[in-house]
Amino acid sequence: MAAEHSAATAARQTDRPGTGTQRLELSSVSISFGGIRALREVSLTVEAGTICGLIGPNGAGKTTLFNCVTGVYQPDSGQIRWDGVELTALPRRQIIKHRVARTFQNVALFPELDVIENVMLGAHHRDRAGVAAAALRLPRFRRQERDLRQQAAEILGSLGLERFAAASPEDLTLGTAKRVELARALMSEPKLLLLDEPASGLVHSEVRELGEVIRTLRERYDLTVVLVEHHMELVMSLADHVAVLASGQRLAYGPPAAVQNDPAVIAAYLGSAE
Ligand SMILES: Nc1ncnc2c1ncn2[C@@H]1O[C@H](COP(=O)(O)OP(=O)(O)OP(=O)(O)O)[C@@H](O)[C@H]1O
User: Fold this and answer.
1) In 10 A of CB 139, how many CB atoms?
2) Residues lining ligand 1, CB < 6 A?
3) For residue 263, with 0-12 CB atoms within 10 Å meaning exposed, 13-18 middle and 19 or more buried, which class applies?
């Protein structure tokens, strides 16, 4: 009886989405736009709790890869699995529910909302009280709003941003605005966080701080992170592994030092600089 019970439990756990290891696995992912082959049979595994740097010259396919993982684009072929779940066929909203979040290259905060309200928006997919309740300002909506506000305040605190809670996004430096975006992404309670060029436009001291922030967040929220970045110092100091894309193909993958000295990688970068 006990054996039957444990077999049934094991079967349920295997069937239930989101109970695999929190590993991101891309296998042979390809996508083309007209004649442009943006990703060509890209395979990549990012282990749970690690930071993977994703680098490559402009147009290499890095953002496209993020767009495929988050359901913005459907790959033409190949599979993407996260936490034991096949993401490839899922709509974006479902993918967020599997605790995948991202930030974007360009900061997109709503200027008519203050900072904490912008952060609260990150929880929109768990809007249990619903729009109608919000319109009628029912008690359950007010309760949910209070809880979300408290959670947003905690996340702002973990990013050292509590003093900006009531500020307008228009009054923030780029470095602070980018951290607010990060806070908004964390509001969806992700386990996989995709960061698209978080250091672009930041001054040197902000980049150093950002590195520390990402490291701290990984520990605190138990995150697996993929970091697209052109800032080599940041990637090389932060990433456990680095993947290099060039013209849609995976050119190299390994520990930062090995990738940095890989002749194929050096050639790809020199080629793109010419
Ligand atoms: N929606 C689209 N329609 C047409 N072409 C696209 C689309 N999205 C991406 N591409 C093309 O796919 C290729 C890869 O673009 P992608 O933005 O993924 O590169 P990237 O590595 O992120 O570049 P960057 O470092 O400049 O941000 C480029 O040639 C780009 O023009």
Assistant:
1) 10
2) 33, 36, 38, 56, 58-64
3) exposed
Specify burial of residue 131 (Cβ count, 10 A radius: 0-12, 13-18, 19+).
exposed
**Distance (Å) from CA 67 to ligand 1 centroid:** 10
- 210 C-alpha to center of ligand 1: Å? 25
Query: Which residues are CB-contacts of 75 (< 8 A; sequence separation ≥ 6)?
Result: 29, 30, 31, 39, 68, 88
226 near 195, Cβ under 8 Å?
A: yes
- The phi, psi pair for 40, rounded to 5°, reads -120, 100
Over the stretch 84-119, which tens digit does the pLDDT of each residue have? 899 998 988 889 889 999 998 888 899 999 999 999
pTM listed for this prediction: 0.86
Give the distance (Å) from ligand 1 centre to CA of residue 269. Answer: 17
Integer-rounded Cα Rg, in Å, for the chain is 20
Instruction: Tell me the ipTM for this assembly.
Output: 0.96
Atom 12 of ligand 1: nearest residue by CA position: 38
- The 10s digit of each residue's pLDDT in 122-167 is 887 765 555 555 666 666 777 788 889 999 999 999 999 999 999 9
Tell how far the Cα of 94 is from the centroid of ligand 1, in angstroms. Answer: 24
Cβ-contact 219, 189 below 8 angstroms? no
Token representation of residue 243: 């993947």
Q: Which of 26, 30, 37, 62 to mutate to test the pocket of ligand 1 (most atoms within 8 A of CB)?
A: 62
Q: By the 8 A CB rule, do 87 and 41 touch?
A: no
